[in-house]
Amino acid sequence: MALKEAAIVIENMIKKFGDVTAVDGLSLTVDRGELFGLLGPNGAGKTTTINILCGLLEPTSGSVVVGGYDVRKEPSKAKKLIGVSPQETAVYPHLTGKENIELFANLHAMSSEELKKNVDGLLQKLGLRDYAKRQAGKYSGGMMRRINLAMALVHDPEIAFLDEPTVGMDPQSRRAVWDFIRELKKQNKTVLLTTHYMEEAEELCDRVGIIDNGKLISLGPPQQLKKQFNARNLEEVFLQLTGRRIREEV
Q1: Within its chain, how far is the Cα of 157 from the centroid?
Q2: How far apart are CA 12 and CA 149, in angstroms?
């Protein structure tokens, strides 16, 4: 059986901020076309990992290869292959939802025909077509996050980094985004998403890496992890590994 080609290869990556180690010796490979979830509590190192993968931060040590390119040595080539939906929304409130997406499409120098096709398609798939001409500042939080997602992926990248893509969403919006992420998988896109929602990781991901205090503490398909730890869900897996829950109840 032929080996799958890797889209992302991280080897012994460490990131320190002064005396604080945010990522601690992370090694990970994500195959092309894989939907991979990085699951862990807030502060586990998920967002720092995403920021290094997309070239916003440099690792303190270790190597990071995205799409076959070393992110340190050939950052511009790696960046051409990726789309990044950050945890914090980056939407211009005085522009309409459609104008926000078109703005990012123009940054990628897309043709007018491709721009129209991609923008209209994303608005339809994310359930935003009826709200496309409304100012983004009047959107709900869930709609803002969906526009953020469309802005990140309007150029049809090979690799998508989705940092907590459904945080704060109502159940209906979350399901719409889940369906959209599944569609990316069908298109053979490589998707790395971070989440602290166990049901999201179980529902969507081919494999899950559980991360805590910057360390990868378990890795495998959700069903395999649950079987290995004799657990009903990934929350119980994390509880067995750390003695605490991923999401502390308020």
Answers
A1: 13
A2: 30
Flag whether the pTM goes above 0.90.
yes
The position carrying tokens 């992926």 is 153
Residue 183 burial (10 A CB sphere; 0-12, 13-18, 19+): exposed
Q: What is the DSSP string of 134-145?
A: SBGGGS-HHHHH
* Alpha carbons within 13 A on the beta-carbon side of 118: 24
Instruction: Name the token pair of 47.
Output: 């967002």
Kindly state which CATH superfamily the domain 1-81+160-169+188-250 is placed in: P-loop containing nucleotide triphosphate hydrolases (3.40.50.300)
- The torsion defined by the Cα of 127, 102, 88 and 50, in degrees rounded to 10, comes to 100
- pLDDT value at 135 more than 90: yes
* 1: pLDDT strictly greater than 70: no
Q: What are phi and psi of 63, to 5 degrees?
A: -125, 150
Q: DSSP secondary-structure letter at 23?
A: E
User: CA nearest 149: which of 119, 109, 107?
Assistant: 119
Cα(32)–Cα(159) distance, rounded to whole angstroms? 8
Over the stretch 115-131, which tens digit does the pLDDT of each residue have?
Answer: 999 999 999 999 999 99
Q: Which two tokens stand for residue 220?
A: 């495998």
Query: In the structure, what pLDDT confidence band is assigned to residue 89 with cuts at 50, 70 and 90?
Result: confident
CA separation for the pair 250, 248 (Å, rounded): 6
Place of tokens 């935003």: 128
71: left (phi over 0), alpha (psi -120 to 50) or beta: alpha
